[in-house]
Design brief:
285 residues, alpha/beta, Rossmann fold, 7-stranded mixed beta sheet, 7 strands, 20% strand, disordered C terminus
């Protein structure tokens, strides 16, 4: 079994490679959202179309998301927004269009080439209130009670310790703040061999957890008003499945009850913390 450090290295290495490619190169595997031919990559089969959203910047869109969290995030002018796993800046720039000049957008990514590309894109756009910080979202380089809104697009499934990430989201949000996160979750078991395939982990599939567990972690972290804003089934084409499963295993998988889904989930941080666990030394916050 891979350790958390090994899984993080897998993700960092793969997304550093992707950061140096164009969206067209990433989609050349034929696994883009509008493609029907499909090749052997699992990074782009979940992407939604951003092109009609205000603030969209094609150079920042690498086709790696699995939803449109900014569309659901209730971002207001003047808000401080944090984008977790900000990549080349796609969601951050759309969030900036909503916050306006009086707001602030902070993107966090732990892949250095992604940070470099996002900063270059921000420079080209002349945006002085969009900032990109290199860091691990399990230990965010952000002070507590900073953000009005947190968004993230197909990133938390790549993080080994999801409890820690949601604890960090709670810490960083202002009281009364909220998040809207798009992510990949499961309903039913996935083949055991997938859990050992690094390519599928970095491609978001084997790193996903059960939807019920995912929503449970959010509730355990202290969030309220947990709402599914979107729930979309993801279908992995047969020629991609064939890289990991035999013909018999593909038939068994497709005839089973397992569902791979892209969800967008919303939740509020209460304006008043009633958990009685945030005193110094309590160890839960």
């Amino acid at each position: 079994m891979n350790t958390n450090a090994e899984l993080k290295k897998t993700v960092r290495d793969k997304y550093a490679e992707i950061a140096n490619q164009s969206k067209e190169q990433n989609l050349s595997s034929c696994c883009g959202a509008t493609s029907s031919c499909c090749g052997d990559d699992v990074y782009n089969i979940m992407a939604d179309d951003y092109s009609k959203l205000e603030g969209y910047n094609p150079e920042a869109d690498l086709g790696l998301g699995c939803g449109l969290p900014t569309e659901f995030a209730k971002i207001k002018e003047g808000d401080t927004v944090i984008d977790l796993g900000s990549g080349a800046g796609n969601d951050a720039f759309i969030a900036r269009r909503l916050t306006g000049e009086n707001g602030k957008v902070i993107g966090i990514d732990f892949t250095e080439p992604m940070i470099a590309r996002a900063r270059e894109n921000a420079e080209k756009l002349g945006l002085n209130n969009v900032e990109f910080r290199q860091g691990d979202i399990e230990d965010m380089p952000v002070t507590s009670n900073k953000a009005d809104v947190i968004v993230s697009n197909c990133v938390l499934n790549l993080v080994p310790n999801k409890h820690k990430v949601f604890s960090e989201i709670y810490r960083v949000l202002k009281p009364g703040g909220h998040f809207s996160i798009s992510d990949i979750v499961l309903e039913g078991p996935i083949p055991d061999k997938w859990k050992e395939v690094a390519e599928l982990y970095a491609g978001c599939v084997s790193g996903a957890i059960q939807k019920k567990e995912y929503l449970g972690i959010i509730e355990e972290s202290g969030f309220k008003n947990i709402t599914l804003q979107k729930d979309k089934t993801i279908t992995i084409p047969d020629d991609i499945l064939a890289n990991y499963l035999s013909a018999e295993e593909i038939t068994e998988f497709k005839s089973g009850t397992t569902r791979i889904t892209s969800i967008t989930v919303y939740a509020d941080k209460p304006a008043k913390d009633d958990r009685n666990c945030c005193e110094p030394g309590s160890g839960c916050c």
